[in-house]
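Write out the bound-state structure for adenosine-5'-diphosphate.
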Amino acid sequence: MNEMNETYRERLLERTRTYAQEEMGRDSSGHDWQHTARVARTARLLAEREQADAFLCELAALVHDIADEKLNPSKEAGLDKVNTWLIENGAAEPDRLHVMDIIANMSYNGGHGGQLSTLEGRIVQDADRLDALGAVGIARTFAYSGWKGQLIFDPDLRPRDSMSQEQYRKQPSTAINHFYEKLLKLKTKMNTTAARELAEERHRYMEAFLAQFYRELGVENDWGT
Ligand code: ADP
Ligand code: NI
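---
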């Protein structure tokens, strides 16, 4: 890679870090700047292990939650904002289009999202999913739950997956139920080998956490973990 290219990449990453920090700094729904910084770091690590473009992975990771529906009037408005920012800050067109494709398509979407079309996209998605697992994932789940007004745990509220669609919509979830509805399933949804390896340890840690949680409560866990 030539020197000009290297300077362009470094400058754009530096500006994007500042932009993401400004945009994400005050969020308390689990999408704060520290989440973005962790995803960017993990994306770089995975890119090195999977021989992908580390610059693109980090760039997409830095902006991946700026367009989140929860933080914008709509998903489209959020995506427009990021797209405009990239144009105004000198992102090369192929880089901008690649990043926009990644962030528009990487969301969990109830586990039904399709496979992302590039290795870089699959890596950023893995990095984001890894941040929902392990000790960090547990912390984010309780933070998000509090933000949303959900209970920690209610023995009468079963994980919503075991219900009909109608019951599902009516019943609120809890932080503990979120493990069954999403977190414990993520291990099998990793795209890359490098991410699967990292997910394994984090998954076991969550299982141990749940076992200890039920032990302290003196309740039977019959939800099949
Ligand atoms: P991201 O877009 O970064 O993947 P999400 O917006 O899906 O994250 O969720 C942010 C964090 O809150 C994640 O750690 C996720 O597991 C957690 N979370 C999402 N939905 C719920 C929920 N209904 N109850 C508890 N935690 C949740
Ligand atoms: Ni995220």
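---
The chain has a mean pLDDT of 90.
The pocket of adenosine-5'-diphosphate (ligand 1) is lined by residues 30-31, 65, 68, 108, 128, 132, 137, 140-141, 144-145, 150, 173, 175, 178, 182-183 (CB under 6 Å).
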